[in-house]
Protein 1
Amino acid sequence: MTFAHTLLVVFYRTMSTASTILTPLGVRGMKILEREKFIRKIQTPVLKVPAEKLSKITPNCKDYFLKLENFKPVQNDSDNKLKCIFFNPDKISMYTDISENHRQGLLHVGVTENNFELKDIQLSYENWSYGTIFKAVLPENEDIVSGFTQVGHIIHLNLKDHLLEYRTLIGQVLVDKIKSCRTVVNKSSIIDNTYRNFSMEVIAGEEDFIVTVKENQCNFMFNFSEVYWNSRLGQEHERILSFLKPGDVLFDVFCGVGPFAIPAVKKKCKVFANDLNPDSFKWLNHNANLNKLNMSLFKSYNLDGKDFILNNFKEYITDYCLGKEKLEKGAKLHITMNLPAIAVEFLKYFNGLIEDQSLDEKLDFEIIVYVYCFAPGDAVLAAKTMVIENIGCDISDDIIDIYDVRNVSPKKEMIRVTFRLSKKVLFSVRNSDSEPPKKKLCLENE
Ligand SMILES: C[S@@+](CC[C@H](N)C(=O)[O-])C[C@H]1O[C@@H](n2cnc3c(N)ncnc32)[C@H](O)[C@@H]1O
Ligand SMILES: *[C@@H]1O[C@H](CO)[C@@H](O)[C@H](O)[C@H]1NC(C)=O
Ligand SMILES: *[C@@H]1O[C@H](CO)[C@@H](O)[C@H](O)[C@H]1NC(C)=O
Ligand SMILES: *[C@@H]1O[C@H](CO)[C@@H](O)[C@H](O)[C@H]1NC(C)=O
Ligand SMILES: *[C@@H]1O[C@H](CO)[C@@H](O)[C@H](O)[C@H]1NC(C)=O
Ligand SMILES: *[C@@H]1O[C@H](CO)[C@@H](O)[C@H](O)[C@H]1NC(C)=O
Ligand SMILES: *[C@@H]1O[C@H](CO)[C@@H](O)[C@H](O)[C@H]1NC(C)=O
């Protein structure tokens, strides 16, 4: 089983001046990976110390350890009574490079410059980290900041133009170095299609897009090229789940493959989950089985969010008011709307949704909406305005929280507006259906 996690790598500006010992040589500009070219013999400082004193010695040496892949900085010496401590040659070249304090500590247990010597070792491709390899291979003196994200066994890169010619090498190194990674793809950073998935081109590893990830104690399986998934949302999913209590109801209008819906059922909520993408719907149902959900608490739909609200949500409210649906006392109904680019545009469907005014007094539970939107920099006010304009009603007093979920790009925040969906909105009287929703007022019935 692989777990979704997010890695952010920053390839810092490589410094041309500081010639480091601990780096492969002669590989700059390599485009086709030749692993044997990464062999390098180096001289590294070591401290040979009595094995039985090791625990008192290492605290004074830790800061200088030689850290490499497949390499232990403390090893047995050929003389089995001694241990060999390897130092990073970029930090230590002579004994006095060890700090005064640490040398005092070493002297205390009888370790002196006499224990210090230089040793030849041979390093190969297996011993360099991917960061070291990229620094040695990719163009020098350029800001080559690049990020990558891992979802299951797939790493997706979003490479800057000047690195495109290195993409095969970069991909291959990541497959080699990151154990849980079997596939590396490049993708365009913009996802603006309806289903929020992106086309991916395999640049290294297997052409297998079916991933399994774990989030909030549930397993999710899906074809990553067909559906939306963002491992950076795990915490936000968790926050919403923390607001749900057993016996509550969740309507997830844009549910994807189920990161709100599936764990919510596990929390004994009754869940109505909807997504327009037929493949999301397919994997959502797959995940319901995978997590052995109690199916009497789970219903899935493959509808446009508009119809889901106008028909399914409305029907639930109506049925409840007519006594056909029951809720425990104090239970709440939650509505999640995570389609930040356009979710607010669906708010208008709540305005005046219930025409039968006689139901008003029967509706006795709280409805909380969690709607997401994108807003610029200082986004709180912009988000609030967007919600109010779209629902067509001043709901300021019903806003519970405006939360900055994450920074998407320099001037773009993902914001969640949490508000109480009041009877004033649901039972608002429609004067004329042709009236644009933004102008429509919420008129309370007398
Ligand atoms: C940003 S994703 C969110 C998925 C999931 N809730 C999550 O948090 O990861 C938005 C989802 O809305 C779906 N979608 C897009 N337009 C829709 C519509 N008009 N009605 C219902 N779902 C829609 C997409 O297929 C996508 O799965
Ligand atoms: C290192 O030496 C210890 C005894 O001092 C021994 O128990 C251990 O197996 C040795 N380790 C290796 C990798 O040789
Ligand atoms: C480098 O890694 C290889 C492969 O795991 C390992 O056999 C070798 O001992 C390592 N090199 C050093 C100097 O430890
Ligand atoms: C991946 O990179 C190649 C090479 O630049 C490019 O042609 C292709 O469009 C990229 N794929 C995506 C999905 O961006
Ligand atoms: C999104 O996924 C659908 C299948 O669900 C696929 O047909 C489509 O090509 C994908 N879109 C992109 C941009 O890859
Ligand atoms: C995953 O989805 C892509 C795009 O729809 C498709 O080409 C591929 O065959 C799918 N993979 C599997 C194993 O279903
Ligand atoms: C499934 O949920 C229903 C409704 O809450 C409940 O009556 C039933 O006992 C649950 N079944 C199991 C196996 O937990």
Protein 2
Amino acid sequence: MGVIIKISVVLLSVFLALLGLGFHNITSPPAITASFNRNQYWGPGKEPQKQDDSVRKFKLDVPDNVIQDLKQRLSNMRPLTPPLEGIQQQYGINSNLLKEILEFWRTKYNWTERQEYLNKYPQYKTNIQGLDIHFLHVKPQNVPKTKKILPLMILHGWPGSVREFYEIIPHLTTQSDDRDFVFEVIAPHIPGYGFSQAAAKPGLGANQIAVIMNNLMQRLGFKQYYCQGGDFGAIILQSLTILYPNNVLGYHTNMAYVSTPLANIKTALGMLYPGWIVRKDHQDRVYPLWDKFMHRIRETGYLHLQATKPDTLGVGVGDSPAGLAAYILEKFTTGTNIQWQTREDGGLLEKFTYTNLLDNVMIYWISNSATTSFRLYAESFSTAHTGQNVLRQPIKVPTAVARFRWDFYVADGLLGEIYPNNLQLSDFDGGHFAAFEVPEVLAQDIFNAVEKFLVYQSNVQQ
Ligand SMILES: *[C@@H]1O[C@H](CO)[C@@H](O)[C@H](O)[C@H]1NC(C)=O
Ligand SMILES: *[C@@H]1O[C@H](CO)[C@@H](O)[C@H](O)[C@H]1NC(C)=O
């Protein structure tokens, strides 16, 4: 773009933004417009008189006929359309790759074994606000009395599940001599995902799920706790830290979210001089703005569909194992590294195994939760939900942000608006599913962050 055009575009967008919103509305966050009822009922029909607040043990025990049916569907599927000549993942998942994975699923993936694996951590269900919430609860073993055990909630997103955390959990719950604390991990499924019951009523967006998640921690006796999330787990937990600053002791995220008019204006102004908002070595992650915008459009078609017509989309995706695997696994190729778009194997085996990836697909399959998982987008991107302004608020509790090379990116100069109390900013190689992809790296970063949170708290108390 020519310099004159560039300057004109920037000034025009700034002018329009100021005109539309007024200076005050841009520089200070609008008030939260909703009140959040801790007892709001999301279950089917009328709220029962008496609520069951017990915490029940849970184990996966999928009936044989479900697995038979799955195998039959995989055997009877229609032929996949071959990819265009010279095309790898650019039109969506490569069907040669998909074919190989589906064949593996049908002939080698052993559910008996995998179910045992998925049952290796203690799991529970408890009813909150009318919904049965499923979660892993893993405590560290043989901890000396001198060490603190800190409660940490970790939350997945879409198209993930608690399966993403099976490799990181041992890192988080194993004590090491050089630290005086270790974690007790609580990993819930979002309502409508995996084995957490879906809402029967409209309106259960990220903010409302934050209420449920805080209620879960209170039910388990954790008045105060730490939390960590990526993808939609990050959105929900960001909301939770804003709604319950007295309950959250610190928040670590591998997907910081800053979307405000001021951030947009700064990003536009940065076209003139990127150094205002973004480090020199990261400028190609934000600019050229138009390229980045078009890239975003190309990669987020799923989001638009899920945010508008989840029920239509869910029929096809949810009814076919091939369709479900294609839809989910595409995200694990390009979401992990966009450069893998030009590889026929999608790079999947660089960081994952077919078995591990199919565990996650299986959780969606056996719980039949395609549609209910998509609805999270409809509920959270509705104007009613965004108009609640929760994610426009600065986070009061201490935070730590880990940025992965191929994940969504927030520039240093924008972070402060929502993360004014950020104690750690780390940059790593890797993609969107950090816990699943590089468990050791993420665990180490969480430990480092919580160490800083603890120092911060002891300073505040003095
Ligand atoms: C700007 O903020 C004021 C006060 O907070 C509010 O009354 C007004 O509706 C806002 N204007 C816009 C365009 O959002
Ligand atoms: C699947 O795993 C179970 C448990 O390890 C084993 O007993 C069984 O033989 C395996 N099935 C196949 C088909 O390999």
